[in-house]
Write the structure tokens for this entry.
Amino acid sequence: MKVNIHEAAAHLSKLISRVSGGEEVIIARAGRPVARLVPVEGRPAERVPGTAKGKVILHGDFTAPLPDDVIDSFYQ
């Protein structure tokens, strides 16, 4: 569904009801799309610390300075 900004402002509650039902609403200014009203997706899964334990290996030289040629490549 496509509506202009003034119509969206006047009927925001109705548009939100439609979006809650799964519909997507495009909001346009002077006939040109400028925004999209879509339902919010579910919350991402809760992060659990430590799930990568044993999967990541840091070598002893991890904190050693980078070689000059690698550092120079950042400035080219």
In short: The CA atoms of residues 9 and 15 lie 9 Å apart.
